[in-house]
Amino acid sequence: MKMGHVVVFSLLLLVLSAGLINIADASENRLEGIVTDHQ
Known about the structure:
Largest sheet: none
Shape: rod-shaped
Radius of gyration: 17 Å
Helix content: over 70%
């Protein structure tokens, strides 16, 4: 049972980190678009 929990936990961590990276990329692109619009 514990091995299963470890696998599920690591998968959740992978999904969370991937989501955070995607969010960071999207916000960076949004900020760059705002900056270029104002120039």
